[in-house]
Every structure is written in structure tokens, then in C-alpha cells.
Amino acid sequence: MNRISITAVDIAKSFNYRTIFRDISFSLLSPSSLTITGKNGAGKSTLSKIIAGLISTTKGSCSYTLNKKNVDIEVFKRYIGFVSTYLNFYDEFTALENINILSRIRTMSRQNESRAEEILNLAGLRQRRDDPVGTFSSGMKQRLKYAFALLHNPAVLVLDEPTSSMDDEGIEFVRHIVRQQKKQGILILATNNRKEAGWCDKEVHLGMKKG
Amino acid sequence: MNSLKVLSIILITFTIFAGITVPMVPQPQSIFEFPDIPGLGETARIIFFHVPAAWVSVLGFLISLYFGFKYLRTKEYNYDIKSVSAAGLGMLFCVLAMVTGSLWAKFAWGSFWNWDPRETSIFILLLIYGAYFALRSALGSDEIRARLSAVYAILAGLTAPFFIFIMPRVIGGLHPGAEGDSSGSIPIAQLQMPLNMYVVFFTGLVGFTLLFIWLLNVRIRAVSVEYQLLIKDQ
Amino acid sequence: MNYLFAIWAIVAKDVRSELRLRYALNALLMFVVTSLAVIIIAFQDSELNPEILSALFWIVIFFTAMSGLSRIFVSEEERGTTLVLQLVASPSAVYFGKLIFNCGLTLLLSSAVTLLYVIIFPTFVIQSLTIFTCTVFLGSLGFASASTMIAAIIAKAQAKSTLYTVLAFPVLAPLLITVIYATALSIQGDIWSNSIPQFQIMIGYLCVVVGFSFLMFDYVWKD
Lengths: 211, 234, 223
Known about the structure:
The structure holds three protein chains of three kinds. By secondary structure, chain A is of the alpha/beta class. Chain A has a domain at 31-45 and 77-206: P-loop containing nucleotide triphosphate hydrolases (Rossmann fold, 3-Layer(aba) Sandwich). Helices cover 32% and strands 29% of the residues of chain A. Chain A has helices at residues 44-51, 73-76, 95-105, 112-122, 138-150, 168-184, 194-197; strands at 4-15, 18-29, 32-38, 59-66, 69-71, 80-83, 156-160, 186-190, 202-206. In chain A, a hairpin with a 2-residue loop joins strand 4 and strand 5 (69-71). In chain A, helix 3 (95-105) packs across helix 4 (112-122). Chain A starts with a strand and ends in a 5-residue tail after the last strand. Chain B is an all-alpha fold. Chain B has one domain (2-20, 50-232). A two-stranded parallel ribbon of chain B has the order 1-2. In chain B, helix 2 (47-74) packs parallel to helix 6. Chain C is mainly α. Chains in contact: A-B, A-C, B-C. Chains B and C meet through helix 4 and helix 5 of B and helix 7, helix 8 and helix 9 of C.
């Protein structure tokens, strides 16, 4: 198993003259888990996007190591699976097509196409996999996001609002994934839900600082 | 800074005075007389003001580019403030150059605008400035606005030189110094300007440049203060 | 190798999407047809000389490009799929993939306009075919490269379509003038060596724009 670490040092993010959060630091070494908590608007989604390499920091940095060697985020992206309400798929393509096309862009070899079917089945989308994503409900889209995030067996899983739009079965599915990931790699969760927040070992709280 | 302001005032005053009052005669006898350039006559006086304005508008663009580039490297918002201030002033002087240029065109060659290469080039510069500000006003977030306008400015800055080099070769023009215009060529290009005109011309150039730096300095300070107030508000 | 595969996969995705939805193709086709219709009606009785034909040719291409080439990034942004693309691809792979797609689209567009011109205008007889084909080819690539970068820049802005043309014109102006001039030369049947300066400019333009975009795309694409 690869030893992965993610280290955040004094991360701060501002947007439109407003500071969203500052002085966020943590250190994670696989296997471990972290939950990001905070009120609405505290910046949980923003922080999870920063960790997933989608947004840059205003101050501070987030660094990644693989087997003790520093890795640039552009390379490290391959090891990250990301689920978020901000994610959208191509409505004109079917679920299977979306997975295949995106994994091809990620340049996984064609052998993974059978794995694509497998993962869609696992996510509970077997019956709808040949339907255009435009016809999906939000819960099914959420399942597709999980399929997409898990396809490449990521060492790091970043979940922003993990159970949003999920039915009971879906929530069980997420719990299962969370349990797996905690043992194998790094899990990062961003949530409002107290119960979900308890799934992880460490916590980072984003608060609105006064004065 | 103060010495710069004083020097700028002195130089520009000298330029205005000398540029307008020194008489133009066919055969200059002393340093207090300018030669009468065939085809241009008294209108040539505008050289002392038109060319510096055009020069300063290009300078403004280059300075804006420089600070835009620095912003992209360091992500420090102050650089963006400097970049947009320089662009604003550059655009102002671009308009001045176009106005003085078209006045000159009217009196020397009969019509206000002729699409000759240099006129078209300054017009394109105005379009670049316009596009720069249109882009900025269409972008919400401060960071995104700073980043994207810097990239656009650099792109425009890289493609514009093509324009300036293509045009005179492709199409002939009225503008002094364009291809196919052997007589009445801009006196500087052929070093036909006698020393006394040269002196006035260069003091104008330097004076306007210093003026630009002065205005830029004030503008940067003003925008910085606005910015500081905005951040304090949260 | 993986990198090239990623670029190809992005092109394939966009082609597939385009074939399924046909937004860009329809828009471009309609635009070409309507502009040519206007030209025909306006110039019914007049004799169109090479300079005018050449200018009209590229004006149609310019405005059609303005109506369709921004889709490549704007559609990703509007549908919210930018994030997913950022997760799977490196910025430069995205850039080259989109660039190749736009080049293909522009070449298609200019071929269509050429064909229609030959059919519609009897005076449009190209005497120097090599100059013409090289001009159209290089010109189309140049258009596509500048348009792609600017499309990426305006993708996050308001009032995208007007902004696109406002930003693109000053950047494309040198290319536009050069290709119009070269096309006029080709219609008149000029010799090859006279147009070499024009080709130098076209190639230089292409190199500068693509080189610049490759270096700067990260700043535009990554937040």
C-alpha cells in the first residue's frame, strides 16, 4: 500500500474582499480520516475543493507526499476521488458513457471499461446506466458521482456533503465506502451533520472569527 | 516625487510656450525660429503634443502589461491595482492622441480620419483598452478579474506588434513616414528637424512622461485607498 | 504518451457531444447562410472585385466564428462540467484538446464558405490556388487558436457573446488584415514569392498565439 500524506499549512482563502477562513492547518498520514465542520457559508466546500486541487489558496499551502516524496497536485490528482454537490456530468451522455469518457480522459486504459460497468452496478445504477444523465434524479446523480470517484481506486477520498440527496440504501452504501476508505487510505469529509462528522477520527472546524 | 512634479510642470510649460510661439519661417536664421515644413506648415506644431500623447498611451499599456505579469507571478492584489491604474491613464492619453491626431489630419490633409496605418494602429490600441475594461466590468470576483484581465492584456500586447509592422507595408498611407510617402515624411524619422525643434520635441516627450508618472502615482494611491476601505468593511 | 491520449480523448468527447446536440454546427451553418444571403441581396447588381470578395469572405468567417467558437468553453462553464474536467485532465491537455476541436470546426467552416462562394459568385475565380489554400488553412488555424484562448477567458464572465467579439477583434485584427490581403492576391493570381511576407506573418501569429496560450492557459483555467 502506498503511504500518502496531505499536509495543510496555514491555509487562508479570500473571495471578493472577504476572508472566508484563515490559519487552517492539519496533517494526515494514511490511513486516517478528517472531517471538516462549520456553519453554512463557513467554507467547507471551498476547503474541500482546495484539498482536491481544484482551487488555489490565497495564503498558505497544501502539500502532498507519496511514499515520502513530494508530489505536485497535477500528478497527485490521479489519486484523489471527489464527490460534491458542485459536480455535474454531461447530460447528453448516458451514465456509462460519462464514466467511460471521463476515465479515458484520465487516461486509464480501455480495460477499465468493464470495471466501469462493475462500479455502476455497485453504486446501484445498473438499470439506468444506458440512460442520459439529464434524466436522472438528484439521488441518482449523487450515486453516479460516487461511481466516478471510486472508479480509479483512489487513495484519497474527499466527500463534500456525502449523503446529500441519498435514500436509506444510498446512505448505507456511503457508510460502507467510508469504512473501507478509512482503512485503506485518507478520507476527508465535509458535513453539517453531527452523526456523519463522527465517522472520522480528526476534525477541523471552520468558524467565523470575530474581531 | 515632488521634484518630479516640478520638473514635469517646467518642461511642459516650456514645450507649450516654445511650441506655440516660436515663429515658423522658410529659412530659419536663429535658434528662435523653426523651419517651415512644406505640406505641413503651421500645423506641424501639433507634433509637440500629439506624439507625446501617443507615446504615453503606449507607455501606459506597457506598464499595465508589466504589472499584470507581476500579478500573475505573485498574486499580490497591489499589482493589479497598479495595472488597472496604468491602463486607465493610457486609455485617456490614447483618446487625446486620437483627437489631436484627427485635428492635425483635418488641417493638414483635409479629413478627420483616413484609416492610414498609424491612425488604425492607435485605434486598435483604443479597442484593446476598451476590451480590457469591458472584460473587467464583466467579471465579478476580484481575483478572477485581476487574473483574466492580465492574461488578456498580455495576449493583446503580443498580437498588436504584428499589426504595427504589417500595416505600413501592406497599405500605403497619408501619415508622415508611411510607405510611399517620400515627401513630407515625419521630420524626426529623417532627422530633418533642426536641433531647436528637437529640443522642444524632446522636452515635451520627457515632460509628458513625467506627467504620466505623476498621474499614475496619484491614481494608484486613490485606488489603493478604495481597496483598503473595501477590505475593512468585512 | 498518456498526455496525447488525454488530448485525443477530450477531442473525442467534444466531437461526440457535438454530434449528439449539434448546437455549434447548427449555429455556424445558419450564420453562414444568412450572411451570404444578405451579401447576395445587397450586391445583386454590382460587380464584385477581388478586394471586396476577399474582404467579405473573411468577414463572414470572422463573424461566424464569433458566434460559434466560444461554445467550447462556455458550454462547460454553463453546464457546470468544468469541475469534472478539471479533476480528470491537466490544464494543457484541456487546452490542446479544445484547440484541436476548434481548429477542425474552423477548417470545416472555411471550406464550406469557400464552396458556397465558388457556387454563388461567378467572379470568384481563384487564379492562384496554392496561395489561396495556404491562406485559408493558416488563417483558419490562426482564427481558431486566438478564439480558443479568448473563449477560455470569457467563459466565466457576464454578457459572454458581446464580450467575446469585443475581446477577439483587436487580437484577431492583424490576422484578419493579412489574410484578406493574401486572399485578394490569390484571386488576382499573384506569384508565390509576393505572398511570402503574408505567410510569414500568419505562421508567426499562429506560433505566438499558441505558444502564449500554452504558457498562460493554467492561469485562465485553474482557479
